[in-house]
# Entry
Amino acid sequence: MRKSTSLLISIFFIAFSILNAEEEKKKSFEIFAFANVNFSAVNTTYQNNFELDFDAAKPGSYASQILTLQGKAREGFNAGFTYFMSEKFGIKFSLNYSRNLLSGENSPYKIYLKYISIHPPDYVPHEVTYDETYDWLTTQGNLKTFSFFTNLQYRFVISKNTTASFSAGSGFYRVYGNFNPLGYSEFWLGGHGVLFSEHYLVMLKIPSSGKIGFNTDFELNFRLSKNFSFAAKLAYNLCGNISIIPVIDKVLFYPYLGKVAENKLSKIKDQMKLKSLKINPSFLSLNFGIKYSLNI
# Structure
């Protein structure tokens, strides 16, 4: 793989050298900064179920839930520089940050519990079934992405003060964030076999995870002065699916929203055994910014 990558890079640079040989005196350097709006490709669900921790429960007792995660448009920024080896061809290095909101309507939180109860008047063990669903809160959260790209860029002239360019390349994505709430419940039997319960909201973190991805963009530049230009850019950042196991950040009593003690938090983490989340952090971005150009 490394040999193939090195060979491709060598071929690109040889091709650039040949194409740029006649334009050796037209080298330039650009610094750019953009504000952008990012349109997230996130559209997934997160399903989790766990066995209920209840001494009187029979096998097969569980709680289950599916959360919907949909990305919403949000602002970000993009900055970097381009080294043009000729009038038309260059290499661009860019850093991008995006923060997309996560939301979604969720299915009910389901609890299915079978347990043995001993209660008056006969105090004979009875099997009892507790089968309930609870309408659930909407998803809240965000997904943050840092990405760094190296692109090959082609620039062409439209008019005296207007140029356009196309670039494509690869880079590295770093993704992290949070979403909530999952549900968690505890049950116990009181006097005369009466069932008691407490319910909780579980807040989750998406741990930092990295992956190689791709970037392509089309850009229009409008010269404002000798060195400064206004630019508009449409970019697509392709990453593909990332599988991450969320971690529990904190747990709140529901509906009182007080934080649980550390020992209970540890117990809940052990009991829930969170499943993997598959998420696609790719996004389309609309960028507007300023460029500073310098001939070298």
About this structure: The chain has a mean pLDDT of 88. The chain has two helices and 15 strands. The radius of gyration is 28 Å. The longest strand covers residues 195-223.
